[in-house]
Amino acid sequence: MSVAFMKEESAETAAETVLPDRPISSHPNLVTEAGLKALEQQLQSARDAHEAANAIDDINERRRQAAGPARDIRYFAERVHTAQLISAPASGDSVSFGSTVRFSRDDGREQTYRIVGEDEADPKAGTISYVSPVARALNGKSVGDLVTVGNQELEIIAIL
Q: How far, CA to CA in Å, does 6 sit from each of 1, 3, 14, 37?
């Protein structure tokens, strides 16, 4: 077959397969034990996906399929490397990293969140990042304390 009919790699094709790095927070990478395990699992999953992508014969498709996992490997490797494991709080006297806090809002709603690292945070699952405004306001406070977040007042009901 003539070379004229073969698809050649181009600089544009190669550039399309290089994804920008995921942003890494400037805050200390505090993690719970579960958060560290999750980071390690995500790193392994990214490595597995990258390995599978590298098995693809077509070089352009291989690059496209490997781009996401390669970016994730860089991100999760850095997050695992910089992780600072924080032990569960020794007592429930005051709110700290790893605490589960139940509080009420001005409108009467009660909410319960565990304060965790940034990568582990998922408000829908009941976890918030220690750098979130709510967690910052609650940190160091005790049951019965009132804190203001934005235009809302929160009262700590329990520290679990």
A: 8, 5, 17, 46
Q: Which pLDDT tens digit goes with each residue over 119-160?
A: 999 999 999 999 999 999 999 999 999 999 999 999 999 999
Q: How many residues does the chain have?
A: 160
Q: In the numeric block, which tokens belong to residue 90?
A: 């020794």
Query: Which token pair is 79?
Result: 């997050």
The dihedral region occupied by 144, where left means phi > 0, alpha psi between -120 and 50, and beta the remainder, is: left
What is the rounded distance in angstroms from the CA atom of residue 33 to the CA atom of residue 156? 25
Residues 133, 29 contacting (CB under 8 angstroms): no
Report how far residue 70's alpha carbon sits from residue 65's, in angstroms, rounded to the nearest whole number: 9
pTM: 0.85
